[in-house]
Specification:
The chain is α+β, with helices and mostly antiparallel strands. It has four helices and three strands.
């Protein structure tokens, strides 16, 4: 696996785990961008939205636009929670370590 693929898989896991640890399993793309930055993954808003779109396509999250700003509300799905917890595997998302 190429380095860029490893980093991308890590970004996706960080997003899923953040949503899993959030009250109501819901956040927004702005908060997720800040969380990624805190984990050492400094991304443009466009890149965050690209990764969110990929996660939607995989059925791991849902995304609802918030007004005309381009911001969105992101919610973890049941399958996304399984992947975040390591109970299911989705190619393109890093598997979590054995201790969480």
């Amino acid at each position: 696996m190429a380095f860029v693929d490893v980093v991308t898989a890590n970004i996706r896991l960080i997003i899923l785990r953040e949503l899993a640890d959030t009250n109501g399993y819901t956040s927004n793309d702005s908060v997720l961008q800040a969380v990624l930055d805190a984990w050492g993954q400094r991304l443009s808003r466009d890149r965050v939205r690209t990764e969110l779109a990929w996660l939607v396509d995989q059925g791991l999250i849902t995304q609802v636009p918030l007004g005309s700003s381009g911001a969105s509300r992101v919610t973890l799905t049941e399958r996304g929670l399984d992947v975040a917890d390591g109970n299911a595997f989705n190619p393109g998302v890093q598997r979590p370590g054995p201790v969480r």
